[in-house]
Amino acid sequence: MCIYGIQDIRRGLAASLGVFAFLLCGAGLGSAADLDAARRELNAGNYAHGARLCQQALDEKEPGETWRLLLAEACLIQGRLTEARAVLTAGLERYPSSLRMRWLGHEILQQSGQSQPAESLATEIITLCNSRPYAYRDPVSLVLLGQAALLRGADPRQVLEKLFDQAKRADPDCRDAWLASGELALTKHDFELAAKIYREGLARFPNDPDFHGGLAKAYFPSDRQAMLKSVADALRGNPHHLPSLLLLADHAIDGERYAAADELLDRVLAVNPEQPEAWAYRAVIRTLKNDAPGVDEARRHALKNWPANPRVDHLIGRKLSQKYRFAEGSESQRRALRFDPGYWPAMIQLAQDLLRLGQEPEGWQLASRVHEGDAYDVVAFNLLTLKDTLAQYAAVTNADFIVRMKPAEAGLYGQRVLQLLARAKTTLGAKYGLRPTAPTTVEIFAEPKDFAVRTFGLPGESGYLGVCFGSVITANGPAAQQAHPSNWETMLWHEFAHVITLQMTHNKMPRWLSEGISVFEERQANPAWGQRLTPRFREMILEDKLTPVGNLSAVFLTATNALDLQFAYFESSLVVEFLVNRYGLEALKKVLQDLGQGREVNQALEAHLAPLPQIDQGFQAFALESAQKLAPSLDWRKPAPAILADPHSEAFENWARLHPHNYWALTVQARNLVNARQFKAAQGPLNLLIEAYPEDSSPENAYRMLAEAYRGLNETQLEQQTLAKLATLDSDAMDVYLRLIELAAAAKDWPEVLRNTDRCLAVNPLVAPPHRFQALAHESLGQRDEAVESYRLVLRLDPTDPAEVHYRLARLLRQKDDPAAKREVLQALEEAPRYRDALRLLLEIEGRAGAQARQP
To answer: Could you tell me what percent of the chain has a pLDDT over 70?
Structure first.
């Protein structure tokens, strides 16, 4: 849409500022003091009292548009739509050229279900501005024109830059301009811009609940702690600030605290008994509790005044999709689009839902439609950019899996991914009694931003290695993890465990149980995989930092740092371990089956295991016992921070002398000795630590330091034995595996070389050394086919000595009388023309070829 008259409105803007200030202050429109008192009451959430003040002023024949606007707004907030419409009608009769009355009237009529008259009022705003541009050139008129133009399909960026931003430049204290700009950025998923706008607005309106509430919405997708602080700031100024209360309810639903969410919704409905979003959230809660009659009743209330309101079903579907119930979520978006086929928020959410369900053709088509209709929608733009990236990916497939990855990576480890997934399907499918019938799609991304867009719609999300939606898995591959990749095999095993449990439950399971089973199954598959009890986790358990099971899902949202988040995963897995140990796997499987049939989790737990309070009590005892049993012969008391801060001080030495079996003291003493190259002396505390705590795999564990000491003493065999033990405990220890390969190759222990190259490739298959050693081991063991394949993989990775690789490959191929041997030796000579062994091999190949040609 073209916005006519923008240039005319912008010209002469400065000349109208005096008039604008006059209108805002209400000069000549009644007592400014009384008007300010009414505003304060409304801003503080005293809507009924504020409305009475406005009505009293009108009854006393106080003139002025602002009184009517405040009264209509107060009625709208409270859901008193009949009164609001009456105020609107009288206001438009008295102020027929008012843009503000029309814009507020648009919202009142829309909430009343009168969409056509509401649209007419918005159209009238544009008509008035275009027909009389010099009468509507104040900042507020620019904002109202922009808001009306957006409803008519105007380019959002043009509106933002040429109207909202211009209004702010003309009057930096134009509150409406700041709020409209922030809201526009939020609706287009531009949360970073929205946060910037609201922060700048708060510098001018520091105690304004609407700005605090807007900032909370901007933080909501990425920083729940900051969101909670902003909500608290909003509610401090207005305890009945409905957007903030609704956002808190949204947050509580995410954390599976449904009773708390209901209480917050009660507070909203006490202000406005028909507030549609509140009833939509209530429909979400009833859906999650499998209360079909309650869902119907809540949705009916939500649509009572505006039966074709697309926002209701969009909100319901969005929240269900956030609970991974994408099929139900997509149906809700389709209902919203039946009400309003051009409602872009529902369309882009439906696009994402379908992509997560694996229904890609329609998903991509919808994303394209949104982008064509709303070029500013950040999610649509990101998805279409990602589509171009995915078009360049290769697909490695079998009957059960579709694995997408960069072509170069697919050639390096694509088949290995399929083998790992097949093993996971066989193992976990048999264990839980479910075999997925449809293929599982796995997308392994080389760029973190691509993973984030595919998974969340927006770049910037960090902290996730993989995400499972049910039959679609997205993952950060080794290339996306830069210098410190994690074991991709354990990650995919974890995610495929989600495939099993989500499909068993039809995606109806609490997050703590879903994550707990996946981490638990990592440990069951391989002792080096998954999280285990560490000294820091032990400390947190004994410091009473366990979360009650019923609240555990919320921690995944509110964790303030990486340690708290990792502890949430570990604690969830420890709960599952407790449940399996106490009640058996079969009982846990029955809980999952009940969840799939729609039973609420606490009911399912009580039916097959025990009531939640009993589970909590038993788990607390189990976790405490586990912590106390960790290396019980060690003294776990921690020295004061001041003592620990200076490990070379006399205070530390005195403390360590008094605590000869203390974990922290022994660890620091050992590190001091190793750093000082006193390797013999270091063996004492290190051996004591290993004997007392043989399963320690924390970053500064005794095995690492002891191996370093043995290496310094040239005790190669002891170094190798120590590292071999550590390799069984740590699935990400790439440096350990490489050192073991080096030692085994020197000793010509080729099976040990293969064992550790396999471990390396499970962490990072994109570097040449593991492939090269693997090829050498296969060659030395006479495994020619495997050696040929490994050398070919080395050549994909730009090796430091390609001539040698081509030569070794040529030699193996010649043993098989493969004609490709000549090409390989020629490539070796191309890299190194004076490579004598390659020249001799070429002569041998040519000689044999000549002899064969001379045979009759």
So the answer is: 95
